[in-house]
Amino acid sequence: MKYKISLFLLLIFVLNSCQDENEKRRAENEKEAKKKEKIFNNINKAWVFIDEPINEVSEKNAGEWKEWRDFLEEIGEKPRKTIGAFQKKATAISKKAFALNNNIPSQFNQPQIKSRISILITKVKMMDLFIHLNQIPDEKVTFLIGDINKELVSLERQMDNIVVKSKIPKEQGEEDFLRMLDTTRAIPNTNTVPVPPQNIDQKPVKVE
């Protein structure tokens, strides 16, 4: 009889332990779900990119420069419902950003444009990296979204500046002067008159 009572009490203890463990696991799952929901909501709220050209130059480029048009279209499509959709979109944006190095219009194929494209690519890659971590740092992702928008504006303004400067008429002789400043076009002077060596030991003429 005592054996049956002990077995019964042990069974109750085991069942209570399992129930407590299940409750604990359920509470942890709920906590994790709320955390993921908060991360999703923060990223979803901040996921707003400047996908419309801010000036005529950028708008013209969207029509003529395929890689630029594709990039703007990619950032303009906002993912929905799941964090996985945002992760896929971040990867797609990263690929489109890297493609901006290709087929840059000759007018904008300049160091100041290339450097801004490089910075933009770096920001996008960082966003893609952070959003794929197991523990997503949503604050860093949302901060990078703002940074990417700033780089977009900077790039488009630089394009506009290049076009504006190209329309300013140069004064007569300015182009020749600029070519003279270009050391790569300088013609070496082969008619240099050699300076005769001077005898530093020569004594000065004494005047009486």
What does this protein structure show overall?
By secondary structure, this protein is mainly α. The protein is 67% helix and 0% strand. It has a domain at 47-167. The protein is rod-shaped and about 115 Å long.
| Discrete helix count | 7
Taking the sheet with the most strands, its summary is:
none
Helix-residue proportion: 55-70%
Assembly type of the shown chains? single chain
Helix-strand pattern: HHHHHHH
Proportion in β-strands: under 5%
Query: Which residues form runs of ≥5 with pLDDT under 50?
Result: none
Distance between the termini: 145 Å
In summary, what is this structure?
The protein has 208 residues and is mostly helical. The protein is 67% helix and 0% strand. The longest helix is centred in the N-terminal third of the chain and has 45 residues, at 2-46.
Features:
7 helices, mainly alpha, 208 residues
SSE arrangement:
Layout: H1 2-46, H2 56-64, H3 66-76, H4 83-98, H5 111-131, H6 138-167, H7 174-181
Helix pairs in contact: 1-6, 2-3, 3-4, 4-5, 5-6
